[in-house]
Amino acid sequence: MLTLIRREIRDQLLYIALPCFFSVVMICIAAVSSWWGVPAPISLALTANLMTGLFLGLCCLGTVQMHADRAGRISVLLSTLAVTRGQIFLARVLVGVLTLLIAVIPLVITALVLPGQIIPRVSSYHHVLAAVSVTISLAGFACYSIGLLVGWRTSRAWMLIGSILLLALVASLVWIKGFGVDAMAVLLLLIAAALFRAGSQFVSTSL
Amino acid sequence: MNTSRRYLVNALATGVIATVLLCTGLFWARWLCSFNRHLLLPPSARDVVIRPSRRVATEEGTDPNLVAPAIVTAAMGETQRLFCGLGAAQYLGSHAFPLASDAWLWLVRLREEHPDKEPLDFDPSLGLLVYEGLDRYLQESDSKPAYRRFRHYAGPNGAGDKPDERFGRFISPIADPYAGSSLLVYDRGQKRFFAIQWDARGSSVRKGPELAAADNHRPVQIGAIEKNFGAIHMAVPCPTNVEPPVLTQYFGGDRVLVLDASGRIDLLDVKTLRIVGATGRLPTPMSPFGVARPVTPDDVVAYFALPYGVCNARQGPEWTYRGCAVATLSRDMLAVQVACFDPNGRVIESGGTMVSEYGKSPSGRVGESLRSSAQAAYYHLPGARALTSAKLIVESLHPPVLVLASYFAGPHQEATAGFRSVLLLPDSFVAMIARAGGDVMWWERLAWVFCYMIPGLFFFGFLAERIARDAARIGLARRTRKIWVVWTVVFGLPAYIAYRVTRPKVTLVTCTNCGLGRRPDMEKCHHCGSAWVVPELVPPAWRVLGEPEQAEAASPSPAEQTSQPTKSDA
User: Fold this and answer.
1) To 5 degrees, how large is the angle CA B60–CA B64–CA B70?
2) ipTM of predicted assembly, 2 dp
3) Which of B181, B221, B402, B559 has the fewest other C-beta atoms within 10 Å?
4) How far apart are CA B141 and CA A55, in angstroms?
């Protein structure tokens, strides 16, 4: 499994770096705003916009992982070794989770160190921070799962239009529902369904 | 997992994805309709003026009896903020200042402008209210006034500068967030009011009597009776050119308004901490369907109550309570209703936002007529009918089961929930029917609901018929076909999408018996039931001997041909 994960990371290094890049930019903005005393609403607005970039990066990662497999017939090659397609898919998803954690955890730490720069300073800040972090992570993972689903398509046009449209819908769910339990429940449901569907497609497609 | 179970789970997963994504898309379509409908309202239909004292406009703008204000104005405020600030903004807002709920934006602004503002907070782990105040003292060096911060904790049984178990615990307190150092608190757990006096030298707590269970009091707000501050403006103008006594906004400390969960506004005696009676209620804004039920705080997007009284400045700061003016903003933000109440809670005057139209009235009279702004925005203003039709179409595309669920759940959902509700539709036509007032039987309401659902049901019936045909063509089992048809009628488009995505991908071959397409992976034709006609590969017992074969038999073989010259040679 570790070999599969390593191979996946090596193959998609650029797309793994994309969400992390947005995360780093957000941290830099928070740090610079705090250092120069930029009003909190400005850094908050920038962070909110860059969050869309984070979602986009994760969706791209999922799409590219599946599309590269289909186009390069990677899983066909790997299936000749002692590896099942389920394991290949699991390794792929684990890479997605890893990328998400690498992107989100530094953001959470920054929000703890610099309160009010990434999340508005409110009462019961830690509770709000936890809820926002969990919801953002779930939304990011939902975007990644949707990317996995869309990336298995052979048509590039559908892949592009589908990923943009579905990404916009999933990302807007956070804006609509907020960071409460109901938003988390909807996102969890979406993630479970998308992962099952993507996995089922991947495993059952003939080589 | 066997094939049929995998197929079922696969279809369910696809259905879930389709439902969530489709409902999110439809949410934005509905949002666009609502936002554009709100923009249709002309500026004159966004405010309302009532004259409770019923004096002629040319007279001096005061009531000589000082019974009711001469004029009360109410208007829609920053309503676009509510459209744009959906769940995320609402969540952060409600956590910005939990005791003030929706007034967060104003409070945040206030805090940023006045960082020295004294904040009040509730610590749920301690069950105590926490107050950070400023104490004014004179400096010893130059006797100049200076300020120092102090923090006090208060519970039902006492207050002090450190948390103490002797103070007891508030279970679910509500307080006036703008009260300052004299705070009134109602604890929903203990069902009684408390008066807390914050003081750097020693804070104190006064406990009121427990509310009788028979009184059915459920206070939800004390002091500042408002929701979504800024979305609605109201004023009771006070003439500045008259000598006291004058009727103006009430600033007396002995009476405080308390909003009940039923929408009633009670009057609290601050000295005894008892409710002395009802002094008004939230007025019901006009709905697009005309009559609406009496509203509760959850039924309107915004409300604002302003007490007024007589101030006799000659006799010191003495106030006499005279009543209150209350304004509400409907949940679709298309109507404002304002009412003026006397001290006993009787309506003196009320009014709502109107749109004036010039034309022929139904009675045939030509001239100006007034319509409720909500009805005009749905049916009469230019472009209103198009938006109403679009709303109906969008709602018809929603899964029917969720539309029906909105009928039952809609009346119990908070007014602003419609701005962030993806699956249920609290602001749909169906939910409006559920909320409509009047003496209507439940089955009449349900009949109206089905009338509104008819376009959607027809459409999904058509899709179900298509699915039934296609499923029969590709040879799905009868039971599976029935399930898909029922799902499509119940869940609508998501079920149809799930079917199209998960249907078995088969290439049909022509059946030799019936001539229709049949599946190559099935034993029998799913149309006529005939089995495959397999030709038997038995070699025939006869053989056709034709001319060429005889000639071939007569002619020598190549070997013979090559050997013959040898023989002749020999």
Assistant:
1) 55
2) 0.89
3) B559
4) 60
Measured CA to CA, the distance from residue B366 to residue B359 in angstroms comes to: 5
Tell me the pLDDT tens digit for each residue of A95-135: 999 999 999 999 889 888 877 677 766 667 788 888 889 99
The single residue listed with the structure tokens 């930019």 is: A25
Do B420 and A169 count as a contact with CB atoms less than 8 A apart? no
Domain that holds residue A71: 2-204
Contact A194 B90 (CB under 8 A): no
A148–chain B nearest CA distance, Å: 13
Which residues partner with B359 through β-bridges? Answer: B367
* Residue of A166, A183, A194 lying closest to B87 (CB–CB): A183
Q: Residue A8: which of A201, A158, A170, A148 has the closest Cα?
A: A148
Please, are residues A96 and A141 in contact by the beta-carbon 8 Å criterion? yes
Cα gap A88→A77, rounded to integer Å: 11
Extract the tokens encoding A55.
């979602």
Task: Give B133-152 pLDDT, tens digit per residue.
Answer: 777 776 777 777 777 788 88
Give the integer Cα–Cα distance in Å for B49 and B540. Answer: 105
pLDDT digits (tens, 9 = 90+) for B34-76: 889 988 888 888 889 988 876 555 445 566 666 778 888 899 8
pLDDT at B553 over 70: no
Number of domains in chain A: 1
Question: Which tokens belong to B326?
Answer: 């209350």
Q: In this structure, what token pair is assigned to residue B329? A: 């903003």
The two structure tokens encoding residue B98:
């939990």
Q: Which amino acid is at B110?
A: L
